[in-house]
């Protein structure tokens, strides 16, 4: 089955840029979606189709995807961005197609 | 307002059964594919099951295949997850989520906690 690997944690100072990677075999050929989850809350979609933002998501959130790595970038990080972030793909070649990454805890210093 | 509300969680003994429900409102439920996603305490997200808008196509994670059954009633705007032969490792918050056209999950419900323990 398809595996998505994320770093367990990323630390960033306020105002700086956080980059969260999501590694998978030829992930550049798939559409990658990103979720933010704060403690005790349901996940929220922050980027879909590699780099598009749902309405209401700040432009500070952006995404890219190429080769074996997708990246979620959070610019001008704020304290409120502290959360867990998950990447996700749909592996259409599988009979269990839903795949989430291992998750990354973003800490704002 | 688009909303998904799960219910049916609770404490169940190992080997027992539970049926989760997800009530949808604010959108045309019958046009959307739906999923169940779970999160064990302190762990990451795990996709559990998918059902197409008509109910004709269904997928399961290997961890629940043969024990869980997903279904839907479009007339009642509701999604279900019948969970049998429950194990301690099924303990988790269970979320329902709609699928976007390129297989993203949005929106999500608030989740319902299932605890499997004796």
List keywords for this structure.
heterodimer, A: 109 residues, mainly beta, 3-stranded antiparallel beta sheet, 9 strands, 0% helix, 43% strand, globular, B: 118 residues, 7-stranded mixed beta sheet, 4-stranded antiparallel beta sheet, 11 strands, 52% strand
Fold blueprint:
The complex is a heterodimer of chains A (109) and B (118).
Chain A: E1 9-12, E2 18-23, E3 33-37, E4 44-47, E5 61-66, E6 69-74, E7 83-90, E8 98-100, E9 104-108
Parallel strand pairs in A: 1-9
Antiparallel strand pairs in A: 2-6, 3-4, 3-7, 5-6, 7-8, 7-9
Chain B: E1 3-7, E2 10-12, E3 18-25, E4 34-39, E5 45-51, E6 58-60, E7 68-73, E8 78-83, E9 92-99, E10 105-108, E11 112-116
Parallel strand pairs in B: 2-11
Antiparallel strand pairs in B: 1-3, 3-8, 4-5, 4-9, 5-6, 7-8, 9-10, 9-11
Describe the overall structure.
The complex is a heterodimer of chains A (109) and B (118). Helix content of chain A is 0%, strand content 43%. Chain A has strands at residues 9-12, 18-23, 33-37, 44-47, 61-66, 69-74, 83-90, 98-100, 104-108. In chain A, strands 1, 3, 4, 7, 8 and 9 form a 6-stranded mixed β-sheet that branches. A 3-stranded antiparallel β-sheet of chain A has the order 2-6-5, with no helix packed on it. In chain A, strand 3 and strand 4 form a beta hairpin. Chain B is mainly beta and 118 residues long. The N and C termini of chain B lie far apart (39 Å). The interface between A and B is medium-sized, with 27 and 24 residues.
